[in-house]
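Hi all, posting the design record for the shared folder.

TITLE: backbone redesign
STEP: 1 of 1
STRUCTURE INPUT:
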């Protein structure tokens, strides 16, 4: 979806968090995301002293999730991936350092690829391998600026 200046934008189509390690995912319609707590209520959000917070928040493209499931002939809800944010209509950068803007205030710096783990394989045989090519498993990031986000918010890659 084009935005001013010819840039391309996507949409935030999902928000999810887990309060405890390996706990169930809870989906939300809106959430506060801050540099010190990440996605409010998510176990990975707070950055411990002396740590870089490289995996403070995670994002996945709806299209990549669908492609991985399509290869396996499966249909699973997106929170199964255990990512925090589901983005539609925008290809996320495949490099650390890029900045993603969501809504009016939230800014996230990509710190790297969100590698799929054996937990995906336990959920569905072949899922870990299907999420591996081309960063299909999503990206990890560090929150740069606070924002309240909601389903339907615009998602942009900052220049």
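Okay, here is what came back for every position:
SEQUENCE:
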């Amino acid at each position: 979806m084009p935005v001013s200046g010819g840039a391309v934008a996507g949409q935030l189509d999902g928000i999810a968090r887990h309060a405890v390690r390996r706990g169930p995912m809870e989906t939300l319609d809106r959430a506060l995301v801050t540099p010190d707590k990440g996605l409010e209520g998510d176990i990975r959000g707070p950055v411990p002293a002396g740590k870089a917070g490289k995996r403070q928040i995670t994002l996945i493209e709806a299209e990549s999730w669908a492609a991985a499931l399509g290869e396996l002939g499966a249909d699973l809800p997106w929170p199964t991936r255990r990512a925090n944010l589901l983005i539609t209509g925008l290809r996320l950068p495949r490099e650390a350092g890029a900045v993603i803007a969501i809504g009016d205030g939230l800014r996230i710096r990509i710190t790297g690829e969100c590698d799929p783990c054996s937990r995906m394989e336990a959920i569905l045989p072949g899922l870990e391998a299907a999420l591996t090519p081309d960063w299909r498993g999503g990206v990890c990031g560090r929150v740069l600026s606070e924002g309240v986000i909601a389903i339907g918010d615009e998602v942009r890659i900052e220049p």
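COMMENT: The longest strand covers residues 9-17.
Let me know if anyone wants the other runs.
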